Amino acid sequence: MAGTGKNEETKTLAEEADSLWLITFAGSIWAVHFLVCYCATAVICAKLGGDAAAILMLRLALGGVTLVALAGIAFVGWRSWLQWDFLDDGDYVHNLARKEDRHEFLGHASFLLSIISFIGVIYVSLPVLFLETCQ
Amino acid sequence: MIMASTLTGAAPDSNNVYPPTEEMLAKPVDEAATRRGAEELRETWKTPKGFRYLTAVNNSEVGKWYALSAFFFMMCAGVLGLLIRLQLAVPGNDFLSADRFNQFFTMHGSAMMFLFAVPMFEAISILLLPGLLGARDMPFPRLSAYGFWCFIIGGVFVMGSILFGVAPNSGWFMYPPLATEAEGIGSDIWLLGLSFIEVASIAAAVELIVGVLKCRPPGMRINLMPLYGWYVLVVGGMILFAFPPLIAGDFLFELQRSFDWPFFDPERGGDPMLWQHLFWIFGHPEVYIIFLPSIAIAAMVVPTAAQRPIVGYSWIVLSAVGTGFLSFGLWVHHMFTTGLPSMSLGFFSAASEAVVIPTGIQLFAFVATLMVGRVKMSLPMLFIAGALAIFTAGGLTGVMVALAPFDWQAHDTYFVVAHLHYTLFGGMVFPLMAGVYYFYPFFTKKTLSVRTGRIVFWLMFVGFNVTFMPMHFTGLMGMPRRVYTYPSVMGWDLLNLISTIGAFIVAAGFVLFAIDLLRPRGKQPLAARNPWKAGTLEWSHNVPEENWGSRSVPYITSRYPLWEQENIVERMDKGRYYLPDAPDLKRETLVTTVLDARPIQCLRVTGPTWITILAAVFTGGAFIFPTFHWYPPAIVSGGAAIACIIYWLWTATSQIPAKDKEMRDVGLSLKLPVYASGPDSVGWWGVWITMLGDATAFASLVFGYFFYWTAKPDFPPAGTEHALAGPLTLGVAALIASWASIYGARVVNRKGKVATARTLLIAAPVLAILGSGLFYFSVAGSGLDPTSHVYPAIIWAVMIWTIVHTGGGVIMQCYCLAGSLFGKVTPEHDSDLWNVTLYWHFVCLTVVVAGLTIGLMPRVM
What we know:
The structure holds two protein chains of two kinds. By secondary structure, chain A is mainly α. Chain A has helices at 5-48, 52-84, 86-89, 99-130. The longest helix of chain A is centred in the N-terminal third of the chain and has 44 residues, at 5-48. Chain A is elongated, with a radius of gyration of 20 Å. Chain B has two domains: 63-518, Up-down Bundle (Cytochrome C Oxidase, Chain A); 710-860, Up-down Bundle (Four Helix Bundle (Hemerythrin (Met), subunit A)), CATH 1.20.120. Chain B has helices spanning 22-26, 31-44, 59-88, 98-132, 141-160, 178-181, 186-214, 227-259, 272-306, 313-326, 342-354, 356-372, 379-401, 404-410, 414-444, 450-476, 493-518, 561-564, 568-574, 611-624, 631-652, 682-711, 725-750, 754-780, 790-821, 831-860; strands spanning 588-592, 599-604, 663-667, 670-673. Classes of the chains: A mainly alpha, B mainly alpha.
């Protein structure tokens, strides 16, 4: 009943809170990973730029951060894949006025976003893999 | 972020029905009721006539003014572009002096970006969104109007400076030290005038985001929303995170220009690179802020042209959101040649390549839709096709310049000029032109000439390529940007001459377009109601024009209601759906839930007024007078602006309905409350979103602080004073106590303990004033001289930023106290208290972070 619409807002948002977070998670992990890489490199290069050992440490640490980020995104991707539930009904259009379509659509969108973010993290970590000095 | 649900004084009514059954929708409406409803709506939504026309706040009026002004500024900037091309047509030309040339290219870029591209997106969205969403109007019509008046005042001021020969002349990105040292008031005009316009942009972003989230028609779940809505959401979000860093940068820059605080002066510890970072953290997302809404137009035109639903709805949502994220990791690719560590360059180069993926996906989705549909090559589709071709070429050169080693060669040459014009013409101008042709019947109920339109297209398409294709080569041959002339021996003569000829062909296209756009159409017959046989809701508009937006607000169960929901237009016309009348002659629209669009409120929206114009004029004064160092009138003007805004809020927002008018029968057996507070109300969402932007600006200031620490060995300088620990700690504590008081006031007021709430509402501003005073003294009393070095300067800047916010908070707390005393805030009607408390959550966070940054960090470092 719409009279309870005010509670409805809170209820649906609570129900979907997980999937709403989910849709932002993969991109946010990419953003955090990007910022950590950029800030750590900026600080280390500015303060300890000539120190080869420090840069090696930096690269190893960022490598670790990258693995954690990729694992996180993979987890988000897996969760959204479950939410999308593609294999169950094969729906990838989600154009019906049903709760189920809204729910699966959010899963689908965040699954795709995880793929993009996964690729994005790999791209951004390539310089750490290949470059051995700051300059 | 989502707080507990709130009471609104109205008990749920068990007779309410939602969703409506097909039986209810099929029931015919009484003819007399239809007629009566239409008359009431017509009376309620009528546009003021004559001189009072200027007081209109309806989205259709404000949107038109906005769009036409942005178009006017675009033509001005276009003329500057032509003059630039004339000067460069032949080597050794003396048509323009070097200084005038500098002013022209600076204003060409600045105006195209700030006075055309971004405002045009806002204008088109304000015009379109209510139609797309079957809403009566945007949730905050007066805010749109205020934004427009700010924009036009600021725009005329900035653009007008060129007529007096005092325009900014340091390039559209205002790099220091060139721009900080520039003589005259040009840089100040740029900084203050455009900051003023950025305020308008953020206002529009708030309006659009809340509109998309809360004003969708009942049933339009988030998976059914038109793609344009998704794009607006993403772009609004990007504006909130992209513009504030620039505002923070402007703030520091103007402090240096006006008071000699050395933020960008290396001799006193400053660093010009900070400006480049702040500018491009804004500047690169800006490119996508321009591009995405135009692509959104393509996402509306393409399904119509193909006469079928878009292929890959989820993929397009993904690419919009994905582009939104990635676009914030690109800014340093404008700074590849500044000597940053190559590893850092690598990150940005990689992200710049990655953003191609989501950008490409949406183009493929369009092509796929066209392939599986039966395409009619209508005029709008022709422009979309041109856009795809040009944008793809621009995207490919983008992939090239995103590689640092290539960029080192091409940086600051005409290759980059060619690249950016290909992306902006293909990504913005052509889709926009498609949009104008496509939506013109919706905006004006008349059509543009198809024959002229085809000529316009070919003039623009051919002219564009003739102008900018050769620039790839002039660039690769080494011609730098922004030179006012060049010697003949360089071998650039012919290419430049070709470019100039091309520019005039493009201009001819625009002139022809402008004539067709603006010529009187009195005798022309009205356009068909749905001339393109489109499927989205805006084509249910009324021909001839009615001002009510939507005759009745429909119940939506599909993505393309006009294709997939039988009888929908007929039922809307008859007033079968929601809000078919306006018995109280009050402007209303429906508010629905964010995810599933269940109706929760019948929102009273504001009507015509002079106060928004006055508020904009005074706000303008507060920004414009400082350009000439006239501070007293600026302060008076700022005070008057605040007074106007308080009057506007007090008299028109969160009005308590009469006892028997708490619930409104919106039709289809549904009664909705008229008043809402907390997360149910649109105002709360507006504050939330505004403060998110504000927090981003503050974060940019703090970023500046840490940037200096990273980049400068003498930050903080040895033996310097620090902010006084005692007063600072006490000040922060008092401000936290003030936050606790306002929060407590909201809680106890809701419980009905009005007297306690009032006591807390008196304590809150007293504590805030005390805390602000102590905060100020901890810096001002410490002997830190902001002109001596960047360290004291940034501490002063953080302090000023903080106490301006606590000062605003004091006014709001007093507003709530007055509300409680004069019956505007009651235990059941407390939306003002909710909104002010929300503001104070952010202020509290700002205070704590500021305290730690200026008090604790330097002692730890």
